[in-house]
Amino acid sequence: MMKRLYDRVMELAGHPQALWWLALVSFIESSVFPIPPDVMMIPMIIARPTRAWLIALVALVASVAGGLLGYAIGALAFETIGQPILSSLGKGDAMAEFNTRFNDFGFWAVLVAGVTPFPYKVITIMSGWTAMPLGTFIATSILARALRFFVVAGLLRVFGAPIREFIERRLGLVFTLFIVVLIGGFALVKYL
C-alpha cells in the first residue's frame, strides 16, 4: 500500500497542477499523511530549477498550515483523532512520558522534527496536546520547515539531478547530525 501511495505522489509531481498537489501533500503530511513533501519537491525542482524557491515556499506555507491542523488535533481532539494517529505510528506507549517532558524541550522538539526524518506530524499533534505556546510552535515550525525545504531546493537548484541520491538517502542524517552538534554546542557553552 505504501509503495502505491508513494508512486501516486511521484506521479503528481509531473501533473500540470503540481504546485497545488504539493501544497495538499505538504499540508496533510504535517498532521496525518505518511509521505513527506520532499518526494514531490525533488522531481519538480529537477524538472524546473528556476522555480526551486517557489516550490520550497509552497511546501513551507502549506506544511506550517498543516502543522496548525495537527496542533488543533492534539489540542481539541487528541482522544478521538490524535491518539489513534500516534498509536498507528507506534508512538502510543511513549505518549504519557513524552507529555511530561515535552514542553521543557518544545522548541527543540519542533525544530528537530521539522528538519530530520522524525515524523513532523507526531510533534504537531503532541504540541497541541501538551498546550505548547502557539507562538513558539508557529515560529519554530516556520524555522524548521524553511530550513529543510529551502536547503533541499538550494541543493537541487545548484547541483541538479546528481545531488538527488544524496538528498534522498543522506540529507536526513546530515540534518540530524547538525541538530546534535548544535545542541551539543549550546550544552558546552552552558557548562563552560
SSE map:
Blueprint: H1 2-12, H2 18-29, H3 38-47, H4 52-76, H5 78-88, H6 95-102, H7 106-115, H8 120-129, H9 134-159, H10 164-191
Helix pairs in contact: 2-4, 3-4, 3-9, 4-5, 4-8, 4-9, 5-8, 7-8, 7-9, 9-10
Organism: Pseudooceanicola lipolyticus
Domain VTT: 36-155
Protein name: Cytochrome B
Descriptive report:
With 192 residues, the protein is an all-alpha fold. The protein is built from ten helices and no strands. The protein has one domain. It has helices at 2-12, 18-29, 38-47, 52-76, 78-88, 95-102, 106-115, 120-129, 134-159, 164-191. Residues 36-155 form the VTT domain.
Number of domains: 1
Major sheet attributes? none
What general form does the structure show?
globular
* Total number of beta strands: 0
List the total number of helices.
Answer: 10
Whole-number average pLDDT? Answer: 79
> Which structural category fits the helices and strands?
mainly alpha
Low-confidence stretches: none
Report Rg: 17 Å
> What is the terminal-to-terminal distance?
51 Å
The fraction of residues in strands falls at under 5%
Could you give the order of the helices and strands? HHHHHHHHHH
Q: Helix coverage percent of residues?
A: over 70%
